[in-house]
Design a protein that fits this description.
The chain has 365 residues and is α/β, with parallel strands linked by helices. It has helices at residues 25-37, 77-87, 100-110, 131-141, 152-160, 207-215, 234-243, 259-263, 280-287, 300-303, 318-330, 332-349, 352-364, and strands at residues 12-18, 41-47, 63-66, 91-95, 114-117, 146-149, 169-171, 193-198, 223-228, 250-254, 268-271, 292-296, 312-314. The strands form two sheets. A seven-stranded parallel β-sheet has the order 3-2-1-4-5-6-7, with helices on both faces.
């Protein structure tokens, strides 16, 4: 593998290729890690779709956004490799399915030391791995120095389906700065209880399921639903709210930059996705001391305190999700007990410092 020497300041140069650098779990995690490591590394970031909104989550000067040539499709692999060589990074880091062509370009023509990060799948792979993508991942990632995954479900997929050697796969669970989410709870004297979620409004997050499940609660429970996030699904979801007669009980906030502040207003966190691995929003809810009602996808049930696991229902079980929310909304003591257990689990099992140290080792090793 080729690697560039350190620059004149002794700082290693890392080239990151993201399908998008919009607000999402993998982008926010990178921003947090880079902020914690400060100027230890020089980051060049490619956003293949041109969306760079997550740059706002990073300290000024930590990353340089790089606009690639029009390199799309297999015929452009040599151009991708030439682009990487021109930037001469110490390491190439690629993220998720959308960057695997760059991984293949490096394998065939670039040969820089390469780490690939895989965090999960989009709507097209909700019901299983697509064969063409499985085969492409085997080819593109077959000689990667490391494949980094945040869940044991993905670790198993990488071994069984992508045929990567166990030694090449590194499991690094997401970490959380618990103290940053310990904000005073917003108290409401006699007002409605609040269920909330934070997610990009994309099909695989299935926020429609959450809206319908919330509508099942009935008039005997005085509650509101807050949906934080932006995306292509919003018009359809707003129409669904109207269709179910929930217009005065559901609020869309749009994208938010301070999740801790929103979480401090909630009584219950809900997660309705069809596919996840180790979702950052659930980890943030745990750090905020909230109980969670959600789908049994990825490592979600493993993440939560054992006492909360009964509130995680089989994927697609809309009725079960509604029942879990109802149980939590009806029982204040249960909410407090599960929230406290989740906070302890986040603090003890997923410290941010451990995640940052693991990434530091990957970046600099």
């Amino acid at each position: 593998m080729k690697s560039a020497p350190r620059d004149s300041t002794g700082v290693r140069h890392l080239l990151h290729v993201f399908p998008s650098f919009g607000i999402g779990g993998i982008q926010v995690r990178f921003a947090r890690v880079a902020n914690k490591l400060g100027g230890k590394y020089r980051h060049s970031v490619i956003a293949l779709d041109g969306n760079v909104t997550c740059l706002d989550r990073m300290a000024p000067g930590l990353a340089t956004m790089v606009t690639p040539l029009d390199c799309r499709g297999l015929p452009s692999l040599r151009r991708m490799a030439a682009f990487i060589r021109a930037l001469s990074p110490h390491k190439l880091l690629t993220y998720n399915w959308g960057a695997t062509e760059w991984a293949l370009a490096n394998r065939l023509f670039g040969h820089f030391e390469h780490i690939h990060f895989e965090d999960g799948f989009g709507a097209e792979e909700v019901n299983g791995q697509l064969l063409r993508r499985v085969l492409f991942r085997r080819l593109a990632l077959g000689r990667v120095a490391k494949l980094v995954v945040p869940s044991m479900v993905l670790h198993d997929i990488a071994m069984r389906k992508w045929h990567l050697a166990a030694a090449a796969i590194t499991y690094v669970p997401n970490g959380i700065d618990v103290a940053a989410f310990q904000l005073p709870k917003i108290r409401r004297a006699g007002g409605p209880l609040v269920v909330g979620t934070i997610a990009p409004l994309r099909p695989e997050k299935n926020i429609g399921r959450l809206i319908r499940a919330f509508g099942q609660l009935g008039p005997d429970i005085d509650a509101r639903l807050v949906i934080a996030g932006g995306g292509i699904e919003r018009p359809r979801l707003e129409a669904l709210v109207v269709e179910h007669g929930l217009g005065d009980r559901v609020k869309f906030t749009g994208p938010i930059s301070a999740p801790a502040e929103l979480l401090a207003t909630l009584d219950v966190f809900a997660m309705s996705s069809d596919t996840e691995q180790m979702p950052l929003n659930v980890l943030e809810a745990m750090a905020a001391g909230l109980p969670v009602a959600g789908m049994d996808v990825g490592d979600v049930k493993f993440m939560l305190a054992s006492a909360n696991q009964d509130m995680i229902v089989p994927r697609g079980d809309q009725v079960g999700l509604g029942n879990a929310m109802r149980s939590l909304l009806r029982d204040k003591d249960l909410r407090q007990r599960l929230g406290a257990a989740n906070l302890t689990a986040a603090r003890e099992r997923f410290p941010e410092a451990a995640m940052v140290a693991a990434y530091d080792g990957l970046f600099g090793g």
